[in-house]
Amino acid sequence: MKGSGEYGRCGVETTAASRKAAAVTSAGRQLLLAVDRIAAGMAFASGAVFLLASVYIVLDVIGRKFVGISSAVTDEMGGYALAFGGMWALAHTLRTGGHVRIDVLLPHLPRTFRIVLSYAALLIMVFFAGIVAVYVWRLAADSYAANARAMSFLRTPLFVPQGLMAFGFSVLSLEAAVIFPLGLVESIAAGHLMEPALGEEAGPAEEEASP
Hints:
The protein has helices at residues 2-67, 74-88, 90-95, 111-146, 159-190. It has 211 residues and is mainly alpha-helical. It has one domain (2-190).
């Protein structure tokens, strides 16, 4: 009877732990979904900016060639579009697995080790993007305080492009910071290592067949 009671308590504790893990995983997925929506909106905005910049440059070139009229700020606007569009698409590119990786040795490594490296890359991304974001936010704050402007025809306040860049790096760091622990929690709940939520829907790590 005593053994049965201990077995029952263990079963109840296991069920409670499973429910708690499921609740944590669900909350993490909801948070990831919210960050994904922000990142996707930023990616669409960056694409729209690139498209508008392309149209603007084409019209400016045509005007300069055939009409003799030019805005004289094509280079500056192109630079702002590149800074804005590039930084704001980083988080969505990370989530969809679109960042360039040099896969020289990676395909030849065991699957579990590849997943471990993916988690390591995510952790590095959290700190790298976070540090860059902090320093760019500081730079933007200093530019705003000093009323610093670009040495160009438009005299653009520098805190505007700097702030947009800082926000892009901030969301990139946040995206990685959500994906990393979520993958670990899901791995603990599943009892085996699972891939981080990058690219396609990730599944559990399959054990390598022994030779």
